[in-house]
Design brief:
With about 475 residues, this protein is mainly alpha-helical. Helices cover about 65% and strands about 5% of the residues. It contains 16 helices and seven strands. The strands form three sheets. The protein has a three-stranded antiparallel sheet, with no helix packed on it. A two-stranded antiparallel ribbon has the order 1-7. Helix 4 runs antiparallel to helix 14 and helix 8 packs across helix 16.
Amino acid sequence: MSSTPNPSPQHTSTIGAIGAPSRRNTELGLLVFAVVIPVFAYANVGLAIDGSVPSGLLAYGLGLGLLAGVGHLVVRKFAAYADPLLLPIATLLNGLGLVVIWRLDQSERLQLLAKRAYGAFSPSAPNQLLYSAIGLGLFVAVLVFLKDHRILQRYTYISMVAALILLLLPLVPGLGADVFGAKIWIRVAGFSIQPGEFAKIVIAIFFSGYLMVKRDALALASRRFMGLYLPRGRDLGPIITIWAVSLLVLIFENDLGTSLLFFGLFVIMLYVSTERTSWIVIGLLMSAAGAVGVASFASHVQARVDAWLDPFGCYQTSGACEQIGQSIMSFGSGGVIGTGLGQGHSDLIGFAANSDFIFATFGEELGLAGVMAMLLLYGLIVERGIRTALAARDPFGKLFAVGLSGAFALQVFVVAGGVMGLIPLTGMTMPFLAYGGSSVIANWALIGILIRISDTARRPAPAPATNPDAEMTQVVRP
């Protein structure tokens, strides 16, 4: 008889322990393109406007490259298995936004308009670069200090209170600021902050934690009506409450964008957690009823609805109509391939050209092809977020990733739809492209959280612990 020792257990591995590649080198390669493309766009704008390469080209390229490099090194160290596309796409969008904001800073029309209104002109691009650096700093902080996204589940109801405080801050006398009819800003130490941009992340934490616990009750149906499973009466309470809060935001703050985002995010997460189509139908009906009701007596909302229905009918009498009319003409004059960077006239829109209506500049100067490319980049961020949700191993992470992706998608839709005339203008800013510190900082934090969830989802499972007793096991063969 002979015996051969059994192979040592430390040489065996699960499939998870063998592991997927980290894809960090793929991310690095994509980041190179994400930096080079905006640098070439910056040079293109300078050549189109002045006939020469901008003097700040090297500084801009080094600055954007430094931000991208810091982000990559942090991801490589603290989230080695994260999705490789999220950081490069965010960097590319942020870089192109900086280029177009700088291009609008060169407009003599906007400079003259600012001097007439404020007595002096202050360029927006340097501020936006500073906001981008702060946003990347928050991105780094998320990855360094948020070791596991499941920790946020402990703060489900605290996040609800925090979100409500953020939404109500603009209504505090002496703190809130009324900007063009919308009360969505607060002024602190000379800076304007839009709390709603951060509220979308905080409220997603609450929705994820709440729906993870209540999804079974909300999925129950009492009866079937016209092909839909109608929820029980007592289960309608959450959606009615959120609907009422979104209407209050719309009424008191005159903010259609945050109201749509707030309510739409809850309906999306409710549908994903319960798989009941009836919630989508009920949500759409309640949203339409609330919008019609508020538009009937809120003058600010009514003006935007009128501008949406017939922008050229009140072109000479309403600023809202003039802006949306200029935006539609910008998209129309861009055609398929655009007029070229730096060669459009979207600066005629006025103060909102670099914020609410910056997408119109892309539409005119890059044309339909450029607009589709930008929307595809946004679509990729949403797709990678949904893929992360599918790969997440815990229900809270799944719902949280869906919520963040849904909030991002809704914001892109309401902004792009508003400036194109598809829906009434909401006053929100295009993520990463538009001028605004709150928006770019909050969206960098959103990308950081998605990267953290994707790292947790894709990280290989650890190899099983070695059993010392197995070392003594022998297989006896006759």
